Structure formats: C-alpha cells, structure tokens
C-alpha cells in the first residue's frame, strides 16, 4: 500500500515546488527582465515578445493573478503526472513482457503481478491525462473571459471608444471578443506543449541513451531535418495569418455598416456599388485564405511523409541493433521505441506547432497595438498630433482653444476661444461650421486642436444629441443610469411627467419591462426620454447639441425652465434664435473661425446670417 501511495504522490512533489517558485517570481519585474533578455538575444526579431507581454501581463499580475497562478500550477502538476505515468507505463510494459517469458516457464504469479502494475499505471495515466486536458481548457477559458471583460471595460471608460477611433484601429468587435479567444488558446497550449516536451525529454532521454547512443543520435538527426524543412516551407505563414484575420475583419465590418445604412442604400440605389465593394473585400479574403491553405498544404505534405519515416525509423535502427545482438529483449525494443518517439516529439515541438505559433504571432500583432492604444487612452497619452488638453475643474472654461473640423480639412471651427461658462450659454453658427465638434470637445473630453479646456468630472456633465442612444432595456434601467442618488418609482414617474411622457410606463407594461425603444418610440419621444434621464441625474452642466430644436416652442420653454429650477447650467448649440431667451450669453461662430460674444438680451440676428444674405444677395 505504501508503495502505491508513493507512486501516486511522487509525480506531484516536484510540480508543487516548481509552482511555488513560479508564483514567487511571476511579477512585473520578471516580465521586464524576460523582455530585456529577449531583446538582448535578438529573440524579439523572431516573435513580437513586447506585444505578447503587453497583452498577457494583466491576467497574470492583476485582479485574477491568484486564480491564474493556481490554475497554472494545477495544470503543470497534472501534465507532469501524465508524463510520469506514461514513463511508468513504458517501464512496467518492459517488466510485463519479461514476465510473459517467465510465465512460459511456469511463473504465472509474476505475470499477474506485473500485469496489475501495468493496469495501475494505465489507470493513473488516463486520469492524469484527462484532468490535465480539462484544467488546461479551464485556464484558457478563465483567461479569455478575464481578458475580454477587462478590454471591454477599458474600451467603455475614459472615452476610449471614441479615442480608439481617432488612432485608427478599427474592427473593435473582433479585437474585444474573437482575438482574445484565439490569443489565449494559443498562449496556453503552446507554452504547455513546450513544458510538456521539455519534461518528456528529461524523463525519456535516459531511457533512449540506455537503449543506444546511436538511436539517440538518430533521433536528433530526424529532428534537425524536420526543423529545416518546416521553416523553409512555412516561414511566410505568420504574415499570411495576419492578412487573413485582417481581411475577415474588414469584410465583416463593411457588411455591418451596409446593414446599418440599408435604407439609404435602397433609396439612393447604391446596391451595385455596395455589391462591388463587398465582392472586392471577399476577394481579398479569398486570396488570403488560399495563400494560407497553400502554405499549410506544403507543410502538411512534408510532415505527413516525414511522419511515416520517423514512425518507422526507430524500428529500422533497433532492427539493426537486434540483428547484431546489441538488443535482445522484446521489452527493451518497445521501451526504446517509446523513448525515441517521446524525445523526438519533444525536440520537434516547435515544428509540430508551427501553424499555432504563426497564429499566435498574428494575434499578438493585432492585439498589441489595440491594447497599447487602450492603455495610452487610460493614461491620457494621445497619439502624435495637436490635441486639446483637458483638465478637471468645477467650471467649464476655454483657454486659447482652437478646434479643428475634421470634415473640412484643416479649417478651424473656432480660433483662440477664451471663455468661462459659469452661466447659461448658447453657441450658434452656420450649418456645417462644426458646432458638434466644439460640443464634443466639451462633453467627451477629446478633440483635435490646441489650447486647454477645463470641465467637471464625467458624472457632473451630460451630453444630449439630435440622435440619442437608447439601448434595449427597461425604463428603470435607462432612467437611473447615471443617477448618483437612488430614485424610487415616484421620482421616475415624476420625471416622465415633466417631459410629458406620463403614460409611457403604463403603455409599456411598467418600469421593469425591457423594450426596443429605438423602434417603439419616434425620435422626438426618444429625446424626451433622454431629457427625463437628465432631470433625474441633475448634472452641473447639460450640453445640448440641437437636442430641443425639433420641439414646439411651448414645450422647449418648459424644459429650459425645469433645468434652470434644478440649477443645471445650459451649454446649448443651436441655430434657433428662440433658444437665446433661455441663456445669458450668446457666442457666435463665424465661418472663418473667429467668434464674438453677445449678451443674450442684445442678440437678435446672427451676424453670419447678415453676411450670407449679402453674399447671396
């Protein structure tokens, strides 16, 4: 019994010690040291290690680090147990074959004892191998979920979703969901395959040398030939993998945009143009897939042929030794073949996983810049170029601000704006002059240009547009999203009544019934629903980008009166002259980027309208 317990526990002793050592050194300093070593040894030329560390580090050093290291330790322990059990199968198989010879001379008891040990080794190996595969999949799953959740959280905070578009990294859906799946799978499977191979070599190399030094030399020779041929045939695979995933993402994104603009496409009869562009995207994907398939075909042809040669290679070598009486035991032959195949598999782990390594490299080069951009955004590090600096303060202020209009080349929306918004202000300009750009510079905290904008923290400023965003949710979820204080049913219904939507809750089945509000409500009522949310949130500032222009004047007057009663400062962007009576100051933006400030009581006809009438005169 003691012997059986030692047999079961022995494979776990070293893994536990190794896991403790790995946990002690797994930190940012170790990763930085490894990155320095790879750069010093020029290994960074073979694989994008910097991006690999950048993408991997949060899972192993962040909130999930304890769970991650525990899963890794258990997985490595089971891998070692599985390899050690396979080793004992080989040893007991040799003993069993010798017991067969003994039983032929009447040694039946030895036959059954050795057979029992062989069966025990097989049972242990089966359990260890199955659990090893399960925990390895568990580690992949946990890493993937943690990574996707973290990236989505980064993308939806600090205006990252807007700034990420500015740094020109598209296909966010794939980079947030699909790419982490492929990355984590290969980032776990490949290192585990390497560890398994190293431990396999460590375990079976002595058996191989014990069988024959010439057999070991032949194993190394077979491995060298494998690497040379796989590298020559598949060295372009990583770049082709990157082209494949990029082509897939471009094609999918194009079709998503076409679906969202299907009405416009139909009305304008642009089907032929869209079809041609779609066909071009599919053709690019087709070419990329064909190139990948061709390289994989060539590699597979070689590996299939060479695999058969390697499979029978040890038998040929051992046959030669058997003829010359260097090997006489059948059990030694089986043991030598097992050792040869195990060591060869370990030596050629990179060649056997060439496609997986190429895929991991492609994923690193796709995810790396995206992750770097998200981290730069979180740290407020913007890409090269002119960007307005944003600071946090109690009052919205502009200090020598110049905002560029991205739709009119380098033509500025406003030049040298110096203003403190401590009361209600209206910005007015010609259509197309770029009022939305200035509004976004305030509300979103990011804009091209120069100067400095101070604004309150995000919870104290709200931004309403002509086309509001309302997700599929309940009325309660939407109205209370952004509220710093708890709101009961009475407060929710009062806010709806204030914007003349008092019947909406009843008509929708209650406050807790999810609805597709974008299709069930017309645009004016969607804007009213957003105004109700604003009344509940009671921000310090409300940035209204033509949000009330479509309403009747009586209703608009009521909304502005309610906002004033709540103490919300209004920053309105509109060409409607009637809005001027609800503010204290009017800032008029001219087409040349200059601006002029008026007291609202003295403002009647915009100067730009007078200029236009003279020009069209």
Structure report:
The protein has 22 helices and ten strands. It is α/β, with parallel strands linked by helices. It folds into two domains: about 1-380, ABC transporter type 1, transmembrane domain (ABC transporter transmembrane region fold), CATH 1.20.1560; about 390-615, P-loop containing nucleotide triphosphate hydrolases (Rossmann fold, 3-Layer(aba) Sandwich), CATH 3.40.50. Strand 9 and strand 10 (about 595-600) form a beta hairpin. The N and C termini lie far apart (about 105 Å). The model has no long low-confidence stretch (mean pLDDT about 80).
Cα gyration radius (Å) = 35 Å
Helix content range: 55-70%
> Can you list the strand order of the major beta sheet?
6-7-8-4-9-10
Write the CATH architecture name of the largest domain. Answer: Up-down Bundle
What distance lies between the first and last C-alpha atoms, to the nearest angstrom? 107 Å
Q: Return the structural class.
A: alpha/beta
What is the CATH fold-level name of the largest domain?
ABC transporter transmembrane region fold
Low-pLDDT segments: none
CATH class of the largest domain: Mainly Alpha
| Biggest sheet descriptor | 6 strands, mixed
* Average pLDDT over all residues: 78
Number of helices: 22
């Amino acid at each position: 019994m003691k012997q059986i317990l030692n047999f079961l526990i022995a494979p776990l002793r070293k893994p536990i010690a190794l896991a403790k050592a790995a946990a002690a050194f797994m930190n940012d300093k170790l990763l930085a040291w490894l990155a320095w070593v790879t750069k010093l040894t020029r290994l960074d030329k073979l694989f994008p290690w910097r991006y690999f560390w950048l993408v991997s580090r949060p899972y192993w050093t962040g909130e999930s680090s304890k769970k991650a290291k525990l899963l890794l330790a258990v997985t490595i322990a089971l891998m070692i147990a599985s390899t050690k059990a396979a080793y004992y199968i080989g040893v007991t198989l040799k003993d069993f074959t010798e017991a067969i010879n003994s039983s032929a001379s009447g040694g039946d008891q030895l036959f059954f004892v050795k057979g029992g040990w062989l069966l025990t080794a097989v049972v242990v190996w089966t359990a260890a191998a199955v659990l090893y595969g399960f925990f390895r999949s568990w580690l992949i799953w946990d890493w993937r979920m943690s990574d996707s959740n973290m990236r989505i959280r980064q993308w939806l905070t600090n205006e990252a979703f807007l700034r990420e578009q500015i740094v020109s990294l598209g296909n966010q859906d794939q980079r947030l969901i699909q790419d982490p799946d492929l990355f984590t799978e290969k980032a776990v499977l490949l290192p585990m395959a390497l560890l398994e191979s190293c431990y396999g070599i460590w375990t079976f190399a002595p058996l191989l040398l014990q069988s024959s030094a010439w057999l070991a030399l032949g194993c190394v020779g077979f491995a060298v030939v494998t690497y040379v041929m796989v590298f020559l045939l598949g060295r372009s695979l990583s770049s082709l993998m990157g082209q494949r995933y990029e082509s897939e993402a471009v094609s999918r994104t194009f079709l998503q945009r076409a679906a969202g603009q299907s009405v416009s496409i139909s009305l304008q009869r642009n089907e032929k143009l869209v079809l041609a562009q779609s066909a071009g995207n599919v053709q690019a994907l087709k070419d990329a897939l064909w190139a990948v398939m061709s390289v994989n075909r060539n590699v597979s042809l070689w590996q299939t042929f060479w695999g058969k040669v390697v499979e029978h290679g040890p038998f040929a070598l051992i046959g030669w030794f058997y003829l010359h009486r260097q090997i006489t035991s059948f059990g030694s032959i089986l043991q030598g073949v097992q050792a040869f195949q195990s060591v060869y598999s370990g030596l050629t782990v990179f060649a056997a996983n060439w496609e997986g390594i190429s895929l991991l490299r492609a994923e690193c080069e796709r995810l790396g810049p995206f992750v770097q951009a998200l981290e730069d955004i979180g740290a407020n590090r913007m890409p090269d170029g002119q960007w307005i600096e944003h600071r946090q303060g109690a009052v919205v202020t502009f200090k020598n601000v110049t905002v560029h209009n991205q739709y009119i080349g380098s033509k500025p929306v406003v030049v040298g704006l110096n203003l403190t918004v401590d009361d209600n202000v209206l910005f007015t300009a010609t259509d197309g002059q770029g009022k939305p750009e200035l509004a976004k510079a305030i509300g979103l905290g990011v804009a091209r240009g120069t100067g400095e904008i101070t604004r309150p923290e995000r919870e104290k400023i709200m931004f309403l547009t002509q086309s509001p965003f309302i997700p599929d949710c309940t009325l309660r979820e939407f109205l209370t999203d952004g509220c710093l204080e708890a709101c009961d049913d009475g407060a929710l219904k009062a806010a709806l009544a204030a914007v003349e939507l008092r019947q909406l809750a009843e008509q929708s089945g209650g406050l807790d019934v999810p609805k597709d509000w974008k299709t069930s409500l017309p645009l004016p009522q969607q804007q009213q629903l957003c105004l109700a949310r604003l009344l509940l949130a009671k921000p310090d500032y409300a940035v209204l980008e033509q949000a009330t222009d479509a309403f009747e004047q009586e209703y608009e007057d009521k909304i502005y009166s309610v906002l004033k009663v709540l103490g919300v400062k209004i920053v309105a962007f509109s060409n409607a002259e009637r809005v001027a009576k609800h503010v204290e100051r009017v800032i008029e933006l001219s087409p040349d980027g200059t601006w002029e400030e008026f007291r609202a009581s003295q403002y009647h006809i915009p100067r730009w309208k007078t200029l236009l009438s003279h020009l069209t005169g």
